[in-house]
Specification:
The complex is a heterodimer of chains A (450) and B (461).
Chain A (H helix, E strand, L loop, with lengths): L2 H15 L4 E17 L2 E19 L2 E7 L4 H17 L24 H4 L2 H18 L3 E20 L4 E19 L2 E11 L7 H14 L9 E7 L1 H14 L2 H5 L20 E4 L20 E6 L2 E2 L6 H7 L7 E2 L8 E2 L3 E4 L6 H8 L2 E8 L1 H4 L6 E12 L2 E14 H6 L1 E4 L4 E3 L4 E4 L2 E9 L2
Parallel strand pairs in A: 7-14, 13-19
Antiparallel strand pairs in A: 1-2, 1-4, 2-3, 4-5, 5-6, 7-20, 8-9, 8-13, 9-10, 11-12, 14-15, 15-16, 16-20, 17-20, 18-19
Chain B lengths: L6 H11 L6 E17 L2 E19 L2 E8 L3 H12 L13 E2 L16 H16 L5 E19 L3 E20 L2 E11 L12 H13 L3 E2 L3 E7 L6 H11 L1 H5 L20 E4 L20 E6 L2 E2 L6 H7 L7 E2 L8 E2 L3 E4 L6 H6 L3 E14 L4 E13 L2 E7 L2 E5 H6 L1 E4 L4 E9 L2 E9 L2 E9 L4
Parallel strand pairs in B: 4-6, 8-18, 9-16, 15-22
Antiparallel strand pairs in B: 1-2, 1-5, 2-3, 5-6, 6-7, 9-23, 10-11, 10-15, 11-12, 13-14, 16-17, 17-18, 17-19, 19-23, 20-23, 21-22
Helix pairs in contact in B: 1-2, 3-4
Classes of the chains: A alpha+beta (450), B alpha+beta (461).
Chain lengths: 450, 461
């Protein structure tokens, strides 16, 4: 057993000794670095290591959670004791129970050796190359607010009194920039980004060029007139909406009547053009892992297919509430968070239209390249949304003048029905969780501008 | 403070951090404790207790900051962090100055939350649950959360500073869902402060009733209007408008990178003369207050707008050094795992002399945004967006029907200049602000404020 698994096992023993009937411990250790670059110079270099353990304790149907960073014998015992104390405060819930072990299949390819192999100087050079590319791409790019490169390698171990035990290693890496362009008396920003398991998977030129292209495309943007029209969503925007839909399909929200999808399983509520899966084992998915936050196997679940709502996402607790099993959808944000239902990688299936064909099909409408205010502009209970947006006019099937300072509004379920086509080229986007999606054509959306 | 960071250890760590050069080094040590729980379906759940400690060491040389953080506060942990931070430097050893301890008194906490039994906190949530459900049969769901957090910090730097702070924040939140037939609406309210459990001794159940009433009111809501119109913004959390529209654009890092619409505007008229605004990290008990910032600089009150003129930017140490000015005590970090950056503390528009009633009565048509779910701005372009959580139509000088799903959108410079009335009904509210991947507790405040024209984005075209 590794030190991490040993720590998790010790924490479980300590929680039982502190009065828990069942216990589970999740321990993680990660090392990472971050490089921020500005104006051809390294602005900051961060080297980070962190490790911690989170303990869930059950006393009958009462459950409590505690976490901490002290891995000493006494430290782990104190965390475990606090978990048992927390359980004593909670109310009895007949469905709260420790997860039972299930067969977990290993998942190869989660760790990229280039994370360890690359020196910090190499990582800094990659970030500098992103900035150089953006600045050289167009004379109207006057600066780059910041380029951020970050990578990390993480090891996770889980152990429980019911016999769960598992451990895996994974790595991830990303780089992004915010390019600044000037023209027409105004300043515009453009985001470029890339995600991979290691630095070798990143293309700094593509990232820099994307930021520059997005910023310069917005120069001279004006408000559109208010109307209802066809809309093409850029993958970054489609991903944000997919994330909202994935969130509303979590059984916790559904069971508590706080989802627009509650009571609608099996209904034909979406367009056949919109196919959505949760795939916790996609080899390219940033959130892929052999097991979820409570040690149960990650898997692929069809959520929306053939226009119908096919499934909700479950962890052990929500599965128990409906007499069904977990879909391996217990997510954690590190040892600090107790597991809760959440999508892993959301995958929107690519369709058959190229980007140009999507624009052609929209004919006259709006290409939305950015949305803002999602955390405040969407009601997750009702699915009603109104968010800030920017993008380009689509005129006669071609991209035309840039647009800013407008809102797109509607409701999530109606939007699913209004998807007319999906593009051919999907990409991984870090918005809305971890999402792979092509651009999407929506038949009609309310645009509010001038 | 000395318990967190022994001065002799701190001097040794700083010396190691400067072993290969650097014009500035700093060690930041922190211990955090927290307890949170919630009630949902009238059941206490998600009881969670956390304890973490660790340190971050940074070394600054030229334009580069070298930073490393570790878990644990043993001298060996701190030295490891110092060695890692210094690892990429190649210069001559520098000597830190001897440390002089000078920590202002932390904000007073009357009743330490950790001394209050957890069952008392659970009972409080049960009370909130009953109060909310008591507002009417149409309250279908109610959730509420309680959170207490204590952060003890110590900071020492190569210029001889040794300081510390002991911060305790307590916050409760309430969210109600009301249902009538197929209509479903939500209402939320929060109460938080840099205080202990004494915050909750004076009718905390009120926020549950307020959240429930908001949700019930919205059951009668129609679609929000679309288009440009006068907007009256509510007091308290309405201040998030100023926080997003102006506050972020005044943070010196954005200014120095040319990524703010307020670049070069110091001394210029950016608002009507009736507008005065401040960032004040010293307001007693406020959510965004601390005794010192996370670089050991005492917090201060900074007037950012005086009679409509832009008077100050908000600085941390590094950005202040670059501009040759003093830090304004706005260097904040989410934890020892983060670098400090210029952040707002409590930002507010000072009370004016208008009354909310008069502001509304003067409008033939308009929109009344009482409260927001949040907002977002791109400081570089000035484009902002706010989600309205409680909004009404104004027709013929009167508030008429509630509206659902409205968003306010606009550009900072135009909207700030368009504020033509500031109310006398000032109060503060709590917010959690995100910037550069770091969260910080911030206060926002104002009385009612009227913006002559703003774009309301609704579904009614």
């Amino acid at each position: 057993m590794t030190e991490l698994s040993t720590t998790a096992a010790r924490a479980v023993e300590a929680a039982l000794a502190a009065g828990a009937g069942e216990a589970e411990a999740y321990a993680s250790r990660d090392g990472g670095r971050e490089v921020r670059v500005h104006g051809g110079e390294v602005e900051s270099l961060t080297a980070a290591t962190q490790s911690g353990v989170g303990v869930r304790a059950w006393i009958g149907g009462r459950v409590g959670y505690a976490f901490g960073t002290d891995f000493s014998e006494a430290g782990v015992a104190a965390i475990a004791a606090r978990a048992a104390e927390a359980a004593a405060v909670a109310d009895e819930d007949e469905f709260a129970a420790a997860p039972q072990p299930a067969a977990v299949e290993a998942l190869a390819g989660l760790s990229d050796p280039s994370v360890a192999a690359w020196s910090t100087a190499q990582a800094a050079e990659l970030a500098l190359a992103v900035e150089r590319t953006a600045l050289a791409a167009d004379p109207r790019v006057v600066g780059v607010e910041q380029v951020v490169y970050a990578d990390s390698a993480e090891r996770v171990a889980i152990s429980s009194s019911t016999g769960l035990a598992g451990e895996y290693e994974s790595s991830d890496c990303f780089a992004y920039l915010q390019a600044l362009a000037e023209g027409d008396g105004g300043k515009e920003t453009g985001l470029g980004f890339g995600l991979a398991r290691g630095p070798e998977g990143l293309d700094p030129e593509a990232i820099g060029a994307e930021g520059a292209a997005r910023a310069t495309a917005m120069i001279g943007a004006a408000k559109p007139s208010s109307r209802s029209c066809p809309v093409v969503l850029d993958p970054t925007v489609a991903a944000s909406f997919a994330g909202l839909i994935g969130g509303a399909l979590g059984a916790n929200a559904v069971q508590r009547g706080r989802s627009p999808f509650a009571g609608r399983l099996g209904e034909e509520l979406a367009s056949a053009a919109l196919v959505l899966h949760d795939d916790g084992r996609d080899p390219d998915g940033p959130a892929s892992a052999p097991f979820d936050g409570e040690g149960l196997p990650r898997r692929r679940t069809a959520l929306i297919e053939g226009g119908r709502l096919r499934a909700y996402l479950y962890d052990t607790y929500t599965g128990n509430r409906e007499g069904t099993t977990s879909t391996g959808s217990a997510a954690r944000h590190g040892y600090r968070s107790q597991p809760s239902v959440s999508a892993s990688n959301l995958v929107v299936a690519p369709g058959s239209l190229s980007f140009a064909e999507l624009l052609g099909a929209a004919a006259d409408g709006v290409f939305v390249t950015d949305v803002a205010g999602l955390h405040s502009g969407v009601n997750p209970v009702t699915g009603v949304f109104s968010v800030g947006a920017s993008g380009r006019t689509i005129r006669a099937g071609e991209l035309a003048e840039p647009l800013r300072e407008f809102t797109i509004a509607g409701d999530l379920v109606a939007m699913l029905a209004a998807v007319e086509a999906a593009g051919t080229d999907a990409r991984w986007v870090p918005f809305g969780g971890s999402v792979s999606t092509p651009p999407l054509l929506i038949g009609a959306m309310a645009i509010s501008g001038s | 403070m000395s318990e967190l960071l022994d001065p002799a250890v701190a001097e040794r760590v700083l010396a190691r951090a400067l072993a290969h050069g650097g014009r500035f080094a700093e060690v930041f040590a922190e211990r955090r404790h927290g307890l949170s729980m919630s009630i949902d379906e009238s059941r206490i759940e998600a009881v969670q207790s956390g304890a973490e400690e660790g340190a971050g060491v940074r070394v600054v040389e030229g334009g580069t900051t070298y930073f490393a953080h570790v878990d644990g506060l043993d001298p060996a942990d701190l030295e490891r962090a110092a060695d890692e931070a210094a690892a990429a430097l190649r210069g001559e050893r520098r000597e830190p100055r001897p440390l002089r301890a000078e920590a202002p008194a932390p904000l007073p906490i009357e009743r330490r939350p950790e001394d209050v039994a957890a069952d008392r906190k659970a009972a409080l949530l049960r009370e909130l649950d009953e109060r909310a459900r008591g507002q009417g049969e149409e309250i279908a769901q109610f959730t509420s959360s309680y959170a207490e957090a204590r952060r003890q910090i110590a900071v020492a730097n190569s210029e001889g500073l040794l300081s510390g702070d002991d911060r305790t924040r307590t916050r409760i939140g309430a969210q109600a869902v009301a249902r009538r037939g197929s209509a479903v609406e939500t209402g939320a309210e929060t109460l938080g402060a840099h205080r202990g459990f004494e915050l909750l001794e004076d009718d905390p159940g009120l926020i549950a009733e307020q959240a429930a009433r908001k949700a019930l009111t919205l059951l009668d809501a129609g679609p929000a209007p679309s288009g440009s119109m006068p907007v009256v913004v509510g007091g308290g959390f309405g201040g998030v408008l100023f926080h997003e529209m102006t506050g972020h654009g005044l943070e010196a890092d954005h200014i120095q990178k040319g990524a703010s619409v307020y670049v070069g505007k110091l001394g210029e008229q950016v608002a009507q003369p009736l507008l005065n605004a401040y960032d004040d990290g010293r307001l007693p008990h406020e959510w965004g207050s601390d005794a010192i910032d996370d670089e050991g600089v005492p917090t201060q009150k900074t007037q950012v707008i005086e009679e409509g003129r832009l008077t100050a930017y908000l600085y941390d140490r590094l950005t202040a050094e670059r501009d040759g000015v003093a830090s304004t005590g706005n260097g904040r970090r989410e934890s020892f795992r983060h670098l400090p950056i210029p952040r707002m503390t409590n930002t507010y528009i000072a009370p004016g002399d208008a009354t909310p009633e008069a502001m509304i009565a003067e409008l033939e048509n308009g929109f009344y945004a009482v409260s927001f779910a949040g907002g977002q701005v791109d400081p570089a372009t000035g484009d902002f967006v706010f989600g309205v959580s409680e909004g009404y139509l104004i027709e013929g000088g009167k508030v008429t029907r509630p509206c659902r799903g409205a968003t306010l959108i606009g550009n900072c410079l135009e909207a700030l200049m368009a504020i033509d009335a500031v109310g006398d009904d000032f109060f503060m509210k709590t917010g959690i602000c995100g910037k550069g991947g770091q969260k910080a507790p911030v206060g926002t405040g104002q009385g009612h404020v009227r913006v002559r024209a703003m774009t309301v984005g609704g579904t009614e075209l």
